């Protein structure tokens, strides 16, 4: 009886150890899964502005991760802060960081349904989904919003502002061309400001 009792005790002990081991493995798995999730978020987030970063932009562009619906049109905007270097030289890099953060926050407000990315330094990209109906009005409204944003930045940092370029696309194949066109349009705006 004593030997049988010890045998049953060993069985229960092994069962309890098995349950505890199972709980520990499950907890470890959940912890690692959470660490991977956080690492993915951090890998695609700009730490200064808490926007998507260049890696997220490139992943969306080149790996077809954008939820493109060919029945809709999309607007690509490349935006750049005017004279960030001059601002940094005159007021210091802390002021420059505040200018970048302020611009990022305003960009998130410019388009309610946009994806906003900080590509690096003072350059940003926005991808905005619009309906076919009323598209021209949407584009005009977008220009008005960016003019207001430019003025808001200029009011706080008089030597700065925003230059931007716009292009339109409606499928993944057009994305690289849309980026190039928006970028060229942004540099044209910057050049025309420099002439005046």
Task: Please explain how this structure is put together.
This protein has 196 residues and is an alpha+beta fold. It is built from 6 helices and 5 strands. Strands 1-3-4-2-5 form a 5-stranded mixed β-sheet. A hairpin with a 2-residue loop joins strand 3 and strand 4. Helix 3 packs across helix 4.
Based on CA atoms alone, the radius of gyration comes out at 26 Å
Distance N to C terminus: 102 Å
Portion in helices: 55-70%
Strand order of the largest sheet: 1-3-4-2-5
Write a short abstract of this structure.
This protein has helices spanning 2-43, 54-62, 84-91, 93-110, 135-156, 175-195; strands at 52-53, 73-82, 114-120, 123-130, 161-169. It has 196 residues and is an alpha+beta fold.
Feature tags:
6 helices, 196 residues, alpha+beta, 61% helix, 5 strands
Please outline the helices and strands.
Elements lengths: L1 H42 L8 E2 H9 L10 E10 L1 H8 L1 H18 L3 E7 L2 E8 L4 H22 L4 E9 L5 H21 L1
Parallel strand pairs: 1-3
Antiparallel strand pairs: 2-4, 2-5, 3-4
């Amino acid at each position: 009886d004593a030997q049988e009792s010890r045998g049953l005790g060993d069985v229960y002990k092994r069962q309890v150890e098995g349950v505890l081991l199972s709980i520990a493995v499950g907890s470890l798995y959940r912890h690692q899964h959470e660490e991977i999730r956080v690492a993915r978020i951090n890998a695609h987030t700009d730490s200064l502005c808490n926007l998507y970063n260049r890696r997220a932009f490139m992943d969306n562009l080149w790996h077809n991760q954008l939820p493109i619906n060919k029945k809709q049109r999309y607007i690509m905007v490349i935006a750049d802060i005017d004279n960030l270097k001059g601002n940094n030289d005159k007021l210091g890099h802390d002021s420059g960081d505040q200018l970048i953060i302020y611009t990022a926050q305003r960009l998130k407000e410019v388009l309610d349904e946009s994806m906003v990315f900080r590509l690096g330094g003072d350059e940003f990209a926005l991808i905005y989904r619009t309906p076919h109906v009323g598209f021209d009005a949407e584009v005009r409204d977008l220009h008005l919003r960016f003019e207001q944003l430019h003025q808001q930045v200029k009011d706080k940092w008089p030597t700065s502002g925003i230059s931007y370029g716009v292009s339109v696309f409606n499928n993944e194949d057009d994305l690289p061309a849309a980026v190039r066109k928006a970028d060229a349009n942004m540099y044209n705006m910057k050049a025309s400001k420099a002439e005046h």
